[in-house]
Amino acid sequence: MDQNNNGQGYPQQPANAGQQGYTQQMNNVQQGYTQQSMNYGQQGYPQQMNNMQQGYPQQGNNMQQGQYYGMQGGADGQGGGPNKTGLIAIIISLSVVVVALAVVIIVMVAGGKNKNAETTTAAASVSTEGTTVDKTEEKSTEQTTEATEKTTEKTTEKTTEKTTEKTTEKTTEKTTEKTTEKAGADEEEMLIAYETLLIRSKTDGVLQVPYKNDYYTISAVDSGTVQGPDGYHMFDEYACCDVDYDGKRELLARLTNASMAECAVYVFGYDDNRGVYLEGHFFPNDRYFDGFATIDVSHNQGLAGRFWPFTMYRYVADEDCYEAVFYVDAWDGSIFDQDWDGNPFPTDLDKDGDQLLYYINGVTGPEDWDYSLENIFDEEEYQNWLHMYIDESTLVSVNWKGLGNGMLDFD
């Protein structure tokens, strides 16, 4: 009986161990090996157990009759020695039983090892799977965390950017709105102050206004101007425009319908601290550029001829006023062939041949002006110098209006 005869012989290993387990093995022991013993007992090897029942020779019957089966004798069991054949059969049967028990033990041990191996393999698999899962979960968690951080960072950046942008827009709008409102209020107050000054010039005849670090007095009485039916004739024209490029409009008031000595133009500014103040006063042949003004002199009594001398003024933004910086004069050779000292017109310096040369001096005073040949310039040289300061494209167009009995118009 071989090992494949499951149920009658040895258990089918290790399939029974994997499919039915240890319980199946015990069943095999009960149903298999016990069956073997029964087979041996029923069938004999060689039919020993049957012989014991049937007697060979009639030993079983002798035992039933109370006789010792190991004694040799005849059919009646009397006389003779031990039956050697029976002993051999018993020994063989016991050996078979011992071998069967050994096989059972071996099978059980082998099954246990297989089960332990499967358990170890399963545990290792679970451990490996657990480790893999742990690592996968850890990596997935890291990636998720990183993605969350990036998303949070981007969201924060966008939110901050949008918030900053909105805050900036709102702040700018509010600031612009407040600035516009304040500018509007300041503009209105400024125009009222300008109007008040022009009215007082007619009613009072004397004006005293801040000028640099002092005050400047404008008097129609002292100048000999007589009060007429409409008041003192201090100014006859006015204008309101930004002539110094500071972003605010100035009040220009001038007197031209008078003697040459009395003619003048005044540039007034305004702020909250000083009210109306004086930025500068000139002869009323004035031109205003960005940062500068040129004022023609009242009298041309030199050698300039067809050129009218002028003083250049620079606008001082910190003090909001004008100061003189240069005085420009000329020698017209077409009219004066020699200077006051009898020196002939220097034709060798007149490169363009137009018979006009220029003098450029500071404003310390006529006694310091230099009219020597070392301080004389031809047309090209003069224009190059002039354009270092004056940008002709920034010339301010002043819209003068008559100061009559009508309403003042600052538009």
Summarize the entry for a quick read:
The protein contains 6 helices and 13 strands.
Molecular structure report:
The protein has 411 residues and is α+β, with helices and mostly antiparallel strands. It has 2 domains: 125 residues, no CATH class; 199 residues, no CATH class. It is 41% helix and 19% strand. It has 6 helices and 13 strands. The strands form 3 sheets. Strands 7-8-9-10-11-12 form a 6-stranded antiparallel sheet. Strand 1 and strand 2 form a beta hairpin. Helix 2 runs antiparallel to helix 5. The chain starts with 14 loop residues before the first helix and ends in a 9-residue tail after the last strand.
Mean pLDDT across the residues is 75
Structural class: alpha+beta
Following the backbone from N to C, one meets helices and strands in this order, namely HHHHHEEEEEEEEEEEEHE
How far apart the termini lie comes to 132 Å
**Unreliable sequence segments:** 1-80, 122-128
Rg value: 67 Å
Beta-strand content bin: 15-25%
Helix content: 40-55%
Biggest sheet strand line-up: 7-8-9-10-11-12
Q: How many domains, as an integer? A: 2
Which shape, going by the Cα principal axes?
elongated
What oligomeric state do these chains adopt?
Answer: single chain
Number of strands: 13
Largest sheet: 6 strands, antiparallel
Task: Please give the count of helices.
Answer: 6
What are the defining features of this structure?
2 domains; 411 residues; 5-stranded antiparallel β-sheet; 19% strand; alpha+beta; 6 helices; 13 strands; elongated
